[in-house]
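Subject line: Sequence and fold of a protein, written as structure tokens
Area: Proteins and the way their chains fold up in space.
Start of record: The labelled sequence and token lines come straight after this line.
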Amino acid sequence: MKRLSTTLALLLSFGCAAQAALAPNYQRLAELQAVLAHPDVIGAFPVSQPIDRIEYREPDLYRVTAGPCRLDVKIVSKPTASGMVGPRQFSVEPGKPVCS
């Protein structure tokens, strides 16, 4: 009986740990890297205006600024299959650039 309790406790602890998402600082880093790597984000600005700043505006929304132009970029969650675990899967959706 004691062996069964120990085995059950171990199995339950592994099941809970496997469902953990990335820590917030690593999730934010993954989102920033995805924003900078997206070809439509880079292509939204003239070559003469490199990106100056990326701002976190609110959950799942960043603002990329290059000189007088800005571009809002959404982070969109991808659906996960039932029973799948691991870090959040997402895509990057750039809006339209606005220049002043």
